[in-house]
Specification:
The protein folds into two domains: 92 residues, no CATH class; 139 residues, no CATH class. It is 72% helix and 0% strand. It has nine helices and no strands.
Length: 268
């Protein structure tokens, strides 16, 4: 790779070469993460964590499967999912490293902490869904027709339900990060977000109703944090907007550099 040219820009072929290596490193991280994920699933009790919320509703039974290939495919899918989660920081870093040179230094100073903040928020959302929302949803969904029906929960369906719920809460909790990045890029302003507050509340209500199983408790547990995170996002956007305005005003008021000694300024 020849690196940037005299103007600070890389040739197109060098961009392609860098993209190829970034993709290769990301795929390698996913492969290593999947291998580690399979080991964790088979020997370190990942399955126990997934089954624990549904055990009180099984009536002393175990999760069932309907095909001889299901145990193997279930283990493989779960290992891949754990591997993706383990490799996600490396993948995000490779994406960031590819696009970072195109950003200004002020934008990088905001986006880098936002990525770490986003990882924390994603984990908080998933933990909240696992600890509170998942048990409530299972209690609500299994509470119908108990005098006529015997629970026999299929393992693949259960895994899909749990993954969708945890990912939904994790992604929803990323709202402040998205707002911080868009504010740093100048795509949204705090005034715009304040004007759209009522639309955001309606959207949060609809989205929470669609992403949760349908009971009121789990819907409120998603809708409440979404509205709160929207208000926090307005404050973060205002902080970033004020900082950008202050920097722009400072650059405007900054005096132009004086010519070096011994030079003669050209007349207009």
């Amino acid at each position: 790779m020849r690196g940037p040219g005299p103007t600070g820009e890389m040739p197109f072929l060098d961009h392609l070469e860098e993209l190829r290596w970034r993709l290769f490193k990301a795929m390698a991280a996913l492969g290593v993460g999947t291998a580690i994920g399979l080991v964790l699933v088979m020997y370190f009790g990942v399955m126990d964590l997934l089954v624990a919320p549904v055990e009180p509703f099984l009536g002393g039974q175990q999760l069932v499967y309907l095909s001889p290939t299901t145990p193997f495919m279930f283990t493989l899918k779960l290992g891949i999912l754990v591997g993706i989660l383990l490799a996600l920081p490396v993948v995000v870093f490779q994406v960031w490293a590819f696009f970072a040179p195109a950003l200004k230094s002020e934008e990088r100073k905001i986006i880098v902490p936002s990525l770490y903040f986003g990882l924390i928020l994603f984990c908080l959302g998933a933990v909240m869904a696992y600890v509170w929302v998942l048990p409530l949803a299972l209690r609500f969904l299994t509470g119908f027709q108990q005098e006529y029906l015997q629970p026999a929960i299929e393992v693949g369906e259960y895994l899909g339900f749990v993954v969708r719920l945890l990912l939904a809460f994790g992604v929803v909790f990323e709202l402040p990060v998205v707002v911080m990045i868009l504010s740093a890029l100048g795509l949204i302003t705090p005034r715009f977000m304040r004007d759209k507050r009522r639309h955001a509340i309606v959207g949060a209500t609809v989205l929470a109703s669609l992403l949760t199983p349908g009971d009121l408790a789990s819907t409120l547990l998603m809708m409440g944090p979404m509205i709160l995170l929207y208000e926090v996002s307005i404050l973060l956007s205002a902080m970033i907007y004020r900082k950008k305005r202050a920097q722009e005003e400072a650059e405007t008021l900054r005096p132009s550099p004086e010519p070096p000694e011994g030079t003669v300024e050209s007349s207009p």
